[in-house]
Structures are given as C-alpha cells and as structure tokens.
Fold these 2 entries.
Entry 1:
Amino acid sequence: MERSVVFAGFGGQGLLFTGQVLARAAIKDGLEVFWIPSYGPEMRGGTASCTVIVGDEPIGSPVVDEFDAAVVMNLPSLRKFGPLVAPGGLVILNSSLLGDHGCGRSDVDEMRLPCTELAARGGDDKLVSVVALGALVAHLGWVTRESIGAALREMAGRKRPEVVDADLGAFAAGLEAGDVGRAA
Amino acid sequence: MAPRQEIEIGLRRTEAELEAGRRARVLMKGNEAIAEAAIQAGCDAYFGYPITPQAELLEWMARRMPEVGRVFVQAESELGAINMALGAAATGARVMVSSSSPGISLMAEAMSYMAGSGTPMVLVNVMRAGPGLGGIGPSQSDYFQATKGHGHGDYRVPVLAPASIGEAMKLMATAFELAERYRTPVMLVADGILGQAMEPVELRFRTPERQAFDWALTGAAGRPARIVKSLDLDPEVLERRNLALQQKYREIARHETRWEGWQLADAEFAIVAYGTAARVARSAIARAREKGMKVGLFRPITLWPFPERELARMSRQLHGILTVELSSGQMIEDVRLAVEGRCPVAFHGRMGGLVPTPDEVLGALKALRGRVERTRTTTSHDPATEHHPGDASANGTGVRTGARRRGRG
Amino acid sequence: MTLHARSSSVETQRAAAARLVYRKPDVLIDRATHYCPGCGHGVIHRLLAEVMTDLDLPAHTIAVAPVGCAVFIYDYLDVDFVEAPHGRAPAVATGIRRVRPEAFVLTYQGDGDLAAIGTAEIVHAAARGERITAIFVNNGIYGMTGGQMAPTTLLGQRTTSSPSGRDAELMGYPIRITEMLAQLPGVTYAARGSVADAGSIGRLKVMIRRACQVQIEGGGFAIVEVLSNCPVGWGMTPQESLEHLKGSVAEAYPLGVIVDRSAPSTARPAAAAATNPEA
C-alpha cells in the first residue's frame, strides 16, 4: 500500500530537507519510498514543495491523484494542496503563518500547529518543517520515530552538526503536539 | 537466435532478497545516481553544459571526476560538449555527455558523425517538455528524436529507457558496454521526474571490461596511421559503409532487445509504456486488477531496438492495448507496427510537462474495454483472437479516433 | 613519451637531406592532391609536414580534419586523424587533449569553418588555453562549395553569394579573428603569415614551428593564420591571385606575430619576425 504526503511552503522553510528525512527514515524501516521536488524556476520563485510516497512495494506512479497528507506552511500552498488531500486525509497547517486560515473542508483532519513557536521551544525557530514532520509521524505512524531520529542525525550532522540537537528538539516538539492532537 | 527473454530489473525479486537489500540502500537523486553509475562504469571523460532538469548530473561530475582523476569539462555549448566527446572517444576513452531535450537537438550533428564513424559514446537525455524551449516539466516527447531521427543520415542508436533510478544506474554500465561492443553512440533517456526524484538505491556498480580497440587514435607510433571519419564521396563505398551499419543494427536488434512484462500471464489487456509512464501504468494496473480487469504491463527497456516480436506475440492473446506516454503519442507508432492490427491499440498521454495520473489511465483502460466489448457484440467473431490483415483500420488505427466512432454509433 | 627527443633516424635523414636539393618528408603522403592548380593548401601541408618531422611529432600526433577544401587532409598527412563536423575542430581537439595529455594535438581549419560556423568553439578553446596548435587557413572564400562569401571576404570582393561585391552595410565587415583571439590570456601564441611568395613562406614556417613548439613546451593555445589564395574562387590566374594576396589581402590582414606570451623577455615584435625567416 502506498501513502503520500506533500510538504509545501516557502523556500527556506526546510521542506525539501524534511521530505528527505522522511524518505531516509522509510528506508531504515525497510520500506520503499519516492521523493520528488518541484523543480526549476519554481524553486527560485520563493515557493517550494516536495512529495514523498512511502510503500511496502516498489513505488508505482510518481504522481498521485490525491495526497493522504499535506504539510502546508503558507497560504499559496494551502490553496494549492488543500483541495488535493483525499477525504479522510490529514492536513497539517502552520498556524504561526496561516493564522485562522484553514482548508475549509469537513472531510479531512485538520491539525493546526504553531510551528514557529514549537520549533523555538526545540531550540531553533526556523525548523518549522521538522516540527510538522514530528506531528505527521505521531499522527500517522508511517515510519518509526527512531528512524526519523537517525535520519535527522545523518542528514543534519553531515553539514551542520551544531543543529542536530535543535532538529531533534523540533521533531520531539512536533511529536508531542501530534500525540496530543491524536488523543484529542 | 531468439530475442532476449523477459528480464527483471528491480520490480520482482524474492522476499528474502528484498529484505536483505532494503536496509542497505541509500537515498539518491536520479541525476546524481546516473552520474555516479557512469563514474563507476569507468567513464574517463564527461563533457556538459547546464540545462534543467539535468544540471545536477553536470554538477556531480564537476565535483567527482577530478576527485577520481578523470576529465570534466564544462563546454561553451552542447555543440562544444558533444564534439569534445567525439574527440575524446576517438582516442578510445570511455566518454559520456548529458543534456535535456533542447540541448540534445544541438547534439544531433555530432551524433550522426559518431554513428557514421563508429565512435562509442553514451549520451543521457533527461527529457523535458517541448517543442522549442517548451518547459522544464517531465516529458517523453523526444521518442521520435531518439529512435527515428536525431541527426541526419541512415543511422540508429540503441536507446535505453529506465523506469527507476536503480534501473538507470544498472543501465549506465550496459550503455557503455553496448557502445563499445557495437562501436556506436548509445542514448539513455530519462525524464525530468527520474532526474529530479530520489529513490533508495543499492550502491552496487558494474564496470564493463576494457577492450583493446584497433581503431582508436593514440598516435601512429609503430603502426599505420588511423582515421576516424564518416566521409566517403564515392557512392559505392558509402553504400557499403551503410550496408555494414545496417548489418550491425540487425545484430543489435537480435541480441540487445530488452523489455519487461508484469502481470501479463492472464492479461486480456496490456498497457505498453516506458520510463515514468510505465510506473503510472503499474499503479493503474493495480487498481484495474482490484476491479477485476485482467491487465498487464509491457514495458520496453530498449526503445530502439523496439521489442516488436515480443509485443507481436503478446498481442495474439490480448483484446486490446493501451499505450501511455508523456507525449502526444510517439511510441504508439511502433506499437501499431508490431501489433499489425491483431488487436485495437488505444492511447492516453499528457503533454507540456504533465504526467497522467493512475486514475486517468484507468479511465482510458475502461474506455478501451468498452469499445472492444461493443465491437464484439456487433460482430459475430472475436476481433481479439482473429487476425484480419485487411481490416487494420477497423481494429488498430481506427481505435484512436474511437471517440468520433462512438459519436456516430 | 617525450616530444623533445629526436630519434637517430631523423638525424640520419637530416644528414642525407643536407646533400639533397629537395626531399619529401615521410609524413607527407606521396599522392596527387585534389586541390586546384595554384591553391595554397599544398604549400601549407608541406610546411606542416616539414615542421612536424623536424620536431619528431608524427608518431604521437592526433590531428583534427576540418570540413572544407582541406577535408581530405588525412589523405596527405600520414598521422592519426579524426574528422570534425563543420566548425567543431577546436572542441574535438579539446576532447583529445584532455584524455591524451601526451599527444601532439593539431587542428587545421579554413575561414568559414573557424571564423563563421565554428566561432564559439575556437573562441572558447582559446579562452580555456587548450594546449593545441591551430592552423587557420584564410583564403576569404568558401572554396569547397563553389566560392561563396566567407566571414573574411574583403569589402567589395565578388563571390557567388556577394555577386555585386561585399557590401558592408548588408554583409558586414571582414573579421580579424586572430587579433580577437590574441587578446585572450589563454592564447600563448598568435601569428599571421602568408603563402604569397618564397620569403613569406619561409617566415610562415617559422611561425608554424613556434606554434608547435609552444605546445611541446607546455604552453597554451597557439594559432597561426595563413593568408592563402583561391585562384578558382577568386576568378584569377594563380599568379594574379598571389599578387592579390600580397596586396589587398595583406593590407586587410597585417602579417606578423600578433602575440607571443611563451617567452615574454624574448618576444619579438612583428617587424623583427618578418625579417627573420627560418631561424
């Protein structure tokens, strides 16, 4: 079975990085995975998105009709991807930037997360996407938390070892928020 | 000699093998994986020019080739790049260039020279949407260019079309091997998605063995001078050169045709698709099977030589074929030529950088089945199992205009 | 492999040659050429053959043949050759250079090839300072295709594609591409010679030798432009064409060394080089 999530927002919000963390974690869990970014001038125009498809079998179509989950970090992304989430799917909104905006659908789970504040609590308020990843993993459990931790250490540690703790902190903050959201 | 049997690349392995390999894999971007596979295959020199969506391939080479003591040159244009490749390859070096569609057009001239002079080289096209400057989205609209035309003159080049990043890595070694074995340029075609995406891959590489070339330019010390050229102003001589080329192409077609089948054993319908389109088809087929449709996938891995005999054989058991491409329909011409009207051949494709979704493809499959069923109820015989050589338009080519036919009916 | 060493057989040949009035270098294949009567290509081929033999280059030469009248140069010079598409010889030579650092790499191009269709390739090979020796034959016309206007065609010159003469307003001006190239730091040596008469030919040989030596010594890009004649394309007798070469053509394209960055202290000005044939 294949499950898909889109991470969308502004360039610089760590969306592509976070998608890759999820992809690496999936590999560690023995799953199949496919990561595809929006590319070209689009990525220089301020918006960025990537899609991650996780499955038990080799991934088929690299494009999906509808997403099982969407992480949206700004208004254009909400408008673009909100309608593309499957009924019963999950939308994680960064309420720090989106305020009261929502996707206005009753057939999806909408999780509003103050990502900036939660990331700051983890140690670096820029790590908003990692917070969202924590909530996503807590809510959907596609991959193990341990694998995400290992993937974060690998990826962040390679270039900027000093931010590993902040990344792990942001992920933990997201997990906690996601656990609460799920319990509610 | 019988054509190569169905081969398996990454799609079907035993559970134990899958499990063993799964955790050892690394996440790699298509463009970078292709570049690294080329390096591991022994590529001596890479010449390139930046173009989206293959720029990461050039960047990987810029960093890695000097690390391993090999040649990287960023050329002044794609013309410059491929002619540098021509020069380097003429000395017997293992050489590669890469680009995307508009850049590949510029390379057509030198490709023809290399085909004519028998110079081995590997060219990677990470296809984007055209025509003209077009867009940067994924596309398969260079199928004609790759398999039928490209440069001037009566020549062909083997064209390899991977459907996953792992397969692309494996095929890089194959590409160099074919290039040197048959003294020909070889193309590997991916699309923007395969170039830009990341997938888990195993870091297992293959380096084709080096051959001693009796044609390579190394300086004429101790032997007669050698000439690598395509020019022959004497028509008789030039025809002989062409006949020899055609003989070579027949040999390549006999020995190097590659394809993959999936769920074809009981299939009544098949999707013929390659590259990214084949992955969409696979998802669509899984959904169709859930709904009880017996559908399989026929995936050419070599676009030239096209697996025509295998598809022809398969078409005898099929009620209909759907060709899916990221184009207006190019490979479908080869599908039709192979099927020769034995069953209807329908098409679904998207252009401009768009990719068909599995549901779109499923819809096209259902439409094809509906059309076939209507044909079967209005005729006393079964068009899927009876061969009507004289009835090709009703069975094969007529199907593509099925919407109009339906309108009349 | 060193390019400097002269084999004893070469010394023997030279000793034998000292007693001879004329001797064909072995690397020049004994065969009638396809060139028109009076054409300069034959002289240039011979000079190349002499210099390459003197410097013991033929056995490690990989040369690039052009498109144009000299397309069959591989039939006349007995060294390894690859044929380049029109204009692309400098790129082809770059590829050879990079994978064969030990080879002597030579290109031979005409004016249409080098200064029109192949402008990008020559400029960038020169800009990269590719260690190759380029022979650029400028006869101001597309000879092979029947005498059309070339980028180097003189103002007023009649060709089959400028039947009323080259008009600057419609067809632009002749290109002095060697001067353009000489401005690039990657160019170690750039010079212009001529085949107009025996004196010019002697001076040209010095230039070709220098352009080859630059490569042997590990310098950068070296180019010799050769003003040559095309009696058939110009509609002249061979004798008239040589007079024209000495007159209008040499006025438009001044002879001499344009730049020599190989030895700054000993770089000779054009005038000195012109008075110092066959050192």
Entry 2:
Amino acid sequence: MTVPTTVTAPARASAGNDVLLEVRDLRTYFHVLDGTVKAVDGVSFSVRRGQTIGLVGESGCGKSVTALTIMRLLDIPPAEIASGEIIFEGRDLLTLSEDEMRHVRGNDIAMIFQEPMTSLNPVYTVGDQIAEAVMLHQRLSKKEAWNKAIESLRAVGINNPERRVKQYPHELSGGMRQRVMIAMALSCDPKLLIADEPTTALDVTIQAQILELIKDVQDRTGTALMLITHDLGVVAETVHDVLVMYAGRIVETGTVEDVLLAPKHPYTEGLLRSIPSRGMKGQRLNVIKGTVPNPFNMPKGCNFAPRCPYAFAPCAEYDPRIEEANPPDVACWLYTPAPGSPIPPRIRPRRPVEVGA
Amino acid sequence: MSSSAPSLSLGRRRGGRAVEARVSRGLWADALRRLVRNRPALVGLALVAVFVVAALAAPVVAPYGPYERAGGQLEPPSPAHLFGTDLLGRDVFSRVLYGAQISLQVGVVAVLLALLTGGIIGALAGGFGGWVDAALMRLTDVLLAIPGILLAIGIVAWLGRGMPQLMLAIAVTYTPIFARLLRGSLLALREVDYVVAARSIGASPLRILTRHMLPNAVTPLIVQATLVLATAIIDIAGLGFLGLGPPDPRTPEWGTMLVDARRFLQTAPHIVFFVGGAIVVSAIGFNLLGDGLRESLDPRLKR
C-alpha cells in the first residue's frame, strides 16, 4: 500500500492550538485464533476544545474500539495497537506509562458507557462511586467528595440528590443510572467526554432527555464531546461534525449538515436512505445490500465496493483512503482519481439525499 | 430486586412529583429476606443450628462425660441413655455431642484455612492473569488430580496423626476448589461493564481488584464454603474411620466411634445408627443451607 505517513487530520484543520485530541493513523488489531481482525485500520481525526463530534457506523465497524483505544482500556494482548499516535494536549497517550495514563482517565478524558444497567457496581451506593471517582483525582476528604457527589447528581437533573446518593444502583431506573454515569464522568471536569452509545439501551423518551442533558452539561462545562452512535437521529441533534466509519476506517467526514443532508460516500447515502420515513407507508424499507465484509478476509479494493451501487472498475482493485482525497473528506474513487487506473473519477457533487428515499 | 417493585421515578426532568421513597436496603438484607422464605434452607439452618449448639454446649448439655463409664456394656437406648451405651459403657449420646465439637472445630478451621489460601491463590491468579495465573492454576490442577480423600490420607500419613494435621489435610484438599472458584469469578468480572467503567475513571489495578472485583466475587465463596463444610465433616469422619483421626483412640470423634461400633453392628446396631445419623444430619444441614444461600446470594438467580 502506498499510504503516505504524513497524514493530516481530515476533520476541519483549524487553529493548531485549539486542537485537544488528535488521532493519527490509528490501527488497532486483535490477534485471535482465526487470524487478525483489523478493528481500527488507519483512523485519523481531531477534536477541538469544546467541539462535539459524532462517530457513526454500524455495529462492529470499530467505533467503540477506537474509543477504548484512546482510553487505553483494551487488554494487550489480544489487542495490539499496530500504529498511530493519540495526541492529547500535546502528549501522545500511547507513550504514557500506565500510571500516567491513570491520571488522564477520568480526570482529562472521561467515558460514558452504553449499558447504564451494568456500568455501576452493584455493591456500592451511587454516592460511593461518584465520590471514588472524585477522590481518585482530587485531594478531597471523604465528606467533601460526598458533597461533590450530591452536587454533581443535582447538576444532571436528579431530584432529591441527598437521598439518591445513598441508594444502590438496583434502586434506580435505567435513565436515572445513565444520569449517574454522566454525573460520575463529569465529576472531575474532564476536557473530553467520550460517550459510547449513551442512549442505545434507553427508551425513546429517556433517550431524548439524556441527549438534552449531555448537550446541556457540555454547554455549561465547555467539555469536548465525542459521541459514538449508530443512530443518525442522535447525531443530527447533537453534534457539529460527523465521522462515518465503515469496516475500521473513516469513510466520510464533514459538518453534520453536509454529511447528513448531502452525503458523498455511497455508504453514508445508503445509511440515510435506509431510515424509515413517515411518507413511505406500505413500501419496503431501503437497505444496503449485502453484509459487512468478513474481517478475516477484507476485499482487495474498497471495503464497501461489494455492496456499493455505484462501484466501477477501480473500486475492486484499489483501496481508497480518505487522506488521499482532495479535500480529504471522503474515501471513494468517485471523487478521487484512482492511482494507476486509466479511468478518471466520476466526480459527483454533493447532492441532497432524501431520508428514506 | 425481584420481589419489590422498583421505585418509579423520572416523571419530569424539572418539577416532577416527589417520588415515593423506598427504604434503601442493602444486598445482604435482600438476601436474608430471600433466605427466610426458602423452606429447605430454613430446615438446613435449623439442622446447622442444632449441630453448632450441640458442639458449643456439649459440656453443659451432655448428661455424662465423654470418657465416663456411665452404664453397662452395649445397652440399648433408654431414658437414662438416649442413644444407649458402647462397649465400655460410655453414654453414646454424650459422646455424639462431644463428637460434634470435634467435627465443628476441625471442619471450620480446615474450611477457613482452605478459604484463605484458596482465596489468595485465586485472587492472585484471577487478578494478575498471565504467567502468575498459569503457574498457580497448574499447581491447583496437580492437587485436583489427586482424589481428595487420598490426598488427605497421604498428608496425615506423612505428617502423622493429630488434630492440626487433620485440619491441614482437609484444608489442602479443598484449597484448589476455592482457588478455582474465585479465579473464575474474577475472570468473568474483568469484562464486566462496571469494572471497565472503574478503569475508565482512573482506578488502579489493585483498587479495582480489592474494591470492585472481590466484593462481587465473595458470595459464591460463602456458598461453596458452606457446602464444603458438609463434605469436610464426612471427610473427617472418613479419616477417623480409616484410623487416621485423633491420635487418642478414646477421643469421641464420629469416624473413630463408627469403627469401634462396627464390630457390634449385629448385636448393638444403635451405636452405628446414632453416630452415622449425626454425620448424615449435620452434612445434610450444611448442604441445604449452602443451597439456600446460593439461591439467595447468587446474582445470576436474582431478578
């Protein structure tokens, strides 16, 4: 492969000092019995202070692994970080010692998980758990940490926090627990909050409340947010910039308006078309044909080519990389001349796509 | 969790009605409530209580001393001698009570010892993983490969007869069970969301092991300890029966008593009946209690 190593972050290259997190050419592989799975295969992006980015894609595309790699929460082995840099405030997280990394976790970068039902330890009260997070990073007495826990529960809209802190997780509803998780994540004022499918396990009304809350606390605290989801509706409501992932790669990036209203990549287009809309009573749902490629046996050319309605000659031969595109916002031969291919790209301008049409 | 309705909450985000408070009760209180509703467990608890009281109160309750010649030879049960008398005219009822003392003492010490060493081995293996895990688990494999009673016989034969040796022999036999159990629980817990969440807030590995994993792994150990106590009582009697019990043959140890009484199975079956009955009843008691504890404590059976 002829991937240049000087990779520029595809997400808006804005004022250098403003960049909080910059991920460069990150590759996370899993070595398992059947071979190697390239769960994250050359991902680059950056997050500015206070910015909200959305990482979207279907199950298994590498979204969560990307997040866990940034937090360095993967067990090595079986995981291997084959290449890349994760520059957070000028330091490469991948070169930090485990002790140094522990000070980053929770303190600088906090994470909210998908399953509020199981993400809290059943044997401690929620107050104990929030206070623990606080005391891990701040020199506070037990009493002060406890007060901080009450305060942070109030900040996430929990009524009567003085009573709630003394309750055990099993005494709280799912939405309530997710609020507790958010309170815990925000208790140390992190600069970056990674939310991994924070609303997937919740029902729709609670989803809306939790998203509202996340936006709300983000406005108040100015923390940057990396929202991982497969729900384009969530993305549309919450984020400024979107990264679309497919099979371990970022295939398209841009502002939420560009990507969701006029996608370039056929995969993004397919995702949008497959959302059911109100006007399509009695019609079949649009789907993206085929399935995600076998991780042990990726296609030679573009990973999406076997499913792509626009695939043409170079797609089966050459692997498009988003970094090589100009501008670097889509990994698709429809927009970039394929190297060595006599066939010129069929430039398609961004065009509006009707959801579900 | 299963029995009581979860408190309905989250009416509105702001100004929602005050939610009716449900009394906070811990996991242990919940477990106790479930245990009390479980009839077989209660029977087990009662049997265990009888066993423990008999053991502790033997000097008070027993009508005669354990070595005292209290009546004629091999007398059948009578109001004076509830379980009859043995060859030397000693009161079998009194000796069974004192025997409970020995079984309880040896059993509890041995199981606690096994729990402690097994727990440490399991915590090291499950907590650290890697080569520590591999080495410790091969060690327990070796111990598990030898049948328990044979291992115990070997240890007593090697170290000589005596109460400490007996305790040690039983403890070594059960150590690998606890080690594997705890290791297994810890391994499963490594992937659990709240452990990953604890890592994500920057908790150290030691803190995660002691604060987040171990408390969630102890309940199976408690259950197993109760169940193992039942087999330990049988093992103690078994070793006594094989002549590897307490060094003094007059000691009122159940297994030793069985051997003595075996010769008179035809003429005085009551001795074997009552001594054997004591072993069976206490073992059943611990078994029922252990099963009951499992049902009320095991998180998988909850909900």
